[in-house]
Write a structure and sequence with these properties.
The protein has 94 residues and is α+β, with helices and mostly antiparallel strands. It has one domain: YaeB-like fold (2-Layer Sandwich). The chain is built from three helices and five strands. Strands 1-5-4-3-2 form a five-stranded mixed β-sheet. The protein starts with a strand and ends with a helix.
C-alpha cells in the first residue's frame, strides 16, 4: 500500500476547504483511502495534468473538488508515496 505525504500548501488548502464546507471532510477522507489503495480507481477519475502542472496527476472528490498529487519513490522504505500537492475547486487548483 502507498503512503500519503502532504505538502504545506495542501494542508493549508485542506483547512480552508473544511472551514468553508465541514461536511466535505468525510468525503475527502474516503477518497484519500481510495487513492492509497488504487490511485486509478474509476470513481476517482484520475488523470494526468499538462501545462504548469505537467508531471502531476489529479483526481475528483466530487463535482467541483479536485486533489492534485504526484507519485514519488521513497528509497529508504523502497515504497511508493503519493505527494498531495493541492486540493480545491477546479479553478483553485488549475
Amino acid at each position: 500500500m502507498r503512503t500519503l505525504v502532504s505538502t504545506s500548501s495542501f494542508k493549508r488548502a485542506f483547512k480552508a476547504l473544511i472551514r468553508r464546507d465541514p461536511e466535505m471532510k468525510s468525503q475527502i477522507a474516503q477518497r484519500l483511502e481510495m487513492l492509497m489503495a488504487d490511485p486509478f480507481h474509476p470513481a476517482l477519475k484520475t488523470h494526468k495534468l499538462k501545462g504548469k502542472l505537467s508531471g502531476a496527476w489529479a483526481c475528483t472528490v466530487e463535482y467541483d473538488c479536485r486533489i492534485v498529487f504526484s507519485f514519488k519513490k521513497n528509497p529508504d522504505l523502497d515504497s511508493e508515496e503519493i505527494l498531495l500537492i493541492d486540493i480545491g475547486s477546479h479553478n483553485e487548483v488549475y
